[in-house]
Amino acid sequence: MKVKRVLTIAGSDPTAGAGLQADLRVFNQLGVYGMAIPTAITIQDTKGVKGIAALPSGAVKKQLDTLLNDIKIDTLKTGMLLTKENILAIESACRRYKIKNLIIDPIIKSGTGVALLKKDAVSFLKERLFPLALIITPNINEAEALTGIKIKDEKDVILAAKILYKMGPRYVLIKGGHFKKEPNDFLYDGRSFRVYKGKRIKGIKLHGAGCVFSAAITAYLAKGLSVTGAVGEAKGFINKAIKRAVVIGKGRKVLYKMP
């Protein structure tokens, strides 16, 4: 039996609602072998991020070199990267180890507005990692920050996706969870758009849904699905998971009873 091996490089979330802990739960649920390299330790609860403790300089690079010298991975997902040094380490590893299936969830801020990517690292993300990506999965707020476009409707989504595509990824998925209307997601491949529809559940605030969605895409890609197929399966997965979200603290709900 060939085991599908998936690596996430992200921040550590002690609530396990987001970050590498959430990624690993999704990987396990979907039947792939998940591995994790932390970029930083977040100090947070379900109400928000209270602080960030960065790892020592070079720690991500050393983790990558050690792991990838031993294990050949099928897909690599990035989440919170925090610094330009971490981005450069991932770029170097992708090139050295010929990683083709790179999924970038460009985490810039937390849901409560705390910066999770330093300002001087944003250009490195766009210029050094986006050209290596199979797919990038920004939400509406992240797409705005990366393009400078204020996204109010689907026409703005299309314009932002085209700008992001020119930055080098083979696919752009703009996640619509932050839309005021229905949380539809938009996939662009440089030629056409595909819409994956969702239905908003009123009165629910979630922690980590974007991480879970991107992790599910990563797992389905590792299992051999096409990008359009992986996004479709992941959309069904996240739609069901949201309906089963649970309260574990005094803040936002988290996704626990995943399908």
Describe the structure.
With 259 residues, the chain is an alpha/beta fold. Helices cover 37% and strands 20% of the residues. The protein has a nine-stranded mixed β-sheet with strand order 3-2-1-4-5-6-7-8-9, sandwiched between helices. Helix 5 (140-147) crosses helix 6 (154-165) and helix 7 packs across helix 8. The radius of gyration is 17 Å and the shape is globular. The mean pLDDT is 94.
Walk me through the topology:
Layout (H helix, E strand, L loop, with lengths): L4 E8 L6 H11 L3 E13 L2 E7 L4 H12 L4 E4 L5 H13 L5 E3 L17 H8 L5 E2 L3 H8 L6 H12 L5 E4 L10 E4 L4 E4 L9 E2 L1 H14 L4 H17 L9 E2 L5
Parallel strand pairs: 1-2, 1-4, 4-5, 5-6, 6-7, 10-11
Antiparallel strand pairs: 2-3, 7-8, 8-9
Helix pairs in contact: 1-7, 2-3, 3-4, 5-6, 7-8
Strand content: 15-25%
Helical content stands at 25-40%
Strand order of the largest sheet: 3-2-1-4-5-6-7-8-9
Largest sheet: 9 strands, mixed
Computed CA radius of gyration, to the nearest angstrom: 17 Å
On the 0-100 scale, what is the average pLDDT? 94
Helical region count?
Answer: 8
For the record, give the distance between the C-alpha atoms at the N and C termini, rounded to a whole number.
24 Å
Summarize this entry quickly.
It contains 8 helices and 11 strands.
